[in-house]
Amino acid sequence: MSLEIILEELRSQRSQLDQAIAALQGTLDVGRPRKAGGRQRSQMSAAARARIGAAKKAWWAKQKRNSGAAKGKPTLIHATKRKPMSSAARKKLSTITKAGWAERKKAA
């Protein structure tokens, strides 16, 4: 057998394989794979999506409006301004604290 005959035979086999591959690719579904039940999801229209979005936006506005009125006072401890401590009160608190430390030190 000559080399030319072998090459010709291989080329014909290759063309047959290319045809088989093309036929198999044509039968494959190129889109999204379906679920086991075969049910596809329905698409929501842009108008429906806009209507739902507007309703949800109004709902959130109502929630924020109601929650602000119900609270009334700030929940943070340091949100209200405290009066500064007088020097006499600071000195009294300091002596009480130092006495407590001394007791604990003596007990230990």
Please characterize this protein's 3D structure.
The protein is mainly alpha-helical and 108 residues long. Helix content is 67%, strand content 0%. It is built from 3 helices and no strands. It has helices at residues 3-27, 46-71, 87-107. The longest helix is centred in the middle third of the chain and has 26 residues, at 46-71. It is elongated and about 115 Å long. It starts with a helix and ends with a helix.
Q: What is the rounded Rg?
A: 41 Å
Helix content: 55-70%
Percent of sequence in beta strands: under 5%
- Unreliable spans are none
Features:
108 residues, mainly alpha
Brief account:
The protein has 108 residues and is mainly alpha-helical.
Q: Mind sketching the topology for me?
A:
Elements: H1 3-27, H2 46-71, H3 87-107
